[in-house]
Amino acid sequence: MAVQGKVDMLSILRDELAYEGGAASHVFVVLGASGDLAKKKIYPTLWWLFRDGLLPPKTYFIGYSRSKLTVDDIKKKTLPFMKVKNGEEQKVEQFFKINEYIAGSYDSPGDFSKLNKAIEQKGSCNRLFYLALPPTVYESVTLNLKATCMSKSDKWTRVIVEKPFGKDLESSNRLSNHLSALFKEEELYRIDHYLGKEMVQNLMVLRFANRIFSPVWNRDGIASVVISFKEPFGTQGRGGYFDDFGIIRDVMQNHLMQILTLVAMEKPPTTNAEDIRNEKVKVLKSIQPVDIKDTVLGQYVGKPGGKGDEAQGYLDDPTVPKGSVTPTFATAVLSVKMRDGMVYLLYLDVEKATLNERKAEVRIQFKDVAGDIFPDGRSDELYEAWRIFTPLLNKIETEKPKPITYVYGSRRPKESDEFMADRDFKYTGTYRWTESKETKAGL
Ligand SMILES: NC(=O)C1=CN([C@@H]2O[C@H](COP(=O)(O)OP(=O)(O)OC[C@H]3O[C@@H](n4cnc5c(N)ncnc54)[C@H](OP(=O)(O)O)[C@@H]3O)[C@@H](O)[C@H]2O)C=CC1
Ligand SMILES: O=C1O[C@H](COP(=O)(O)O)[C@@H](O)[C@H](O)[C@H]1O
Question: Interface pTM (ipTM) of the complex?
Answer without folding.
Answer: 0.98
